[in-house]
User: Fold Iron complex transport system permease protein from Glycomyces sambucus.
Amino acid sequence: MTATAAPPAASTTEGPGPARRRRWAVPALLGVGLTGLLALGVLVSASNGAFAIPLGDILASIAHKLGLGGAPVEGTGESVLWNIRFPRVVLGVVVGASLACAGALMQGMFGNPLAEPGVIGVSSGAAVGAVCAIAFGLTFAGNWTIPLCAFAAGVVTVSIVYFLSRSGGRTEVVTLVLTGVAVNGLAGALIGVFIFYADNDEITAITFWQMGSLSQATWPKILAVLPLAAIGLALAPTYGRRLDLLALGERPARHLGVDVERLRLHLIVIVALLTGAAVAVSGVIGFIGLVVPHLIRMAAGPGHRALLPFSTIGGAAVIVWADLAARTVAAPAEIPLGILTALVGSPFFFWLLRRTRRRQGGWA
Assistant:
């Protein structure tokens, strides 16, 4: 009696095609979703305010400007749209994209989801420059004086942090962070000194600037910082692969051909460009560089070749929607944008802190 062979079991494994399609489906959907959220935010933000403008009129005005037909908005609506609303929206896109991309770079460089651009002192340094210009009434560059001083001070502060943390031709992450903490403390003391000697009007201006806002947006200000932000945003994705290798650890990254010290220097320069440009025109807007990259990482994974561009789009969308809320929730008053992002970002940071601690089983 011969045994009959059992029929072969149906294969339950899928070929590489479906797996590959699923692997690319999530990033593709995320990119489309973020882009759609940003585009919708731009239109809704341009439409809403003290002077409401229908979405159809906005689209017709844009088509008219592009020479595609359409018609300008009737009455003062055209001026409100192109001289007030769109400058503010575009500045929000630039600021949000810059801060979120800088945050993603910082988290990749430090290998820590709790890192953000303020760690290396660029935000506090820029605040020192702006507060100094306000307190001493500097006007050597006209309306550009405060943004110029803020950007220059931010870059100088980052340079000081970097060179003070170098030892033996290398820069360790722990030393860089501790140096940034010390410089941030010094920057806070200098801001206090400037406020002490300022008069009431100057104190009011300093306080408003430190709260962060897009209310002073103009096309000239956008054109002043756009080249710096564009350079940083264009260069950031080119470091995606090296950041992925750095995530394996410094020693493995070096064995795989990554010049860790040069990479860190390049990233610090890019972060300084992005954060300095954003802070110079908007004041201090916190938590965007912390919250947005982490949310994108949770959705798209840790790969920086997707994380960096998606964080850029996500940061722009978050700022556009947050600014819309800031100027409409308490209308006719306006909530400073930095306060609103802090109200949302602080609880998220606390949750992230507890989540990270729980996953690691404590900090010890």
About this structure: Strands lie at 166-167, 170-171. Residues 100-106+116-284 form a domain with the ABC transporter involved in vitamin B12 uptake, BtuC fold (CATH 1.10.3470.10). The mean pLDDT is 86.
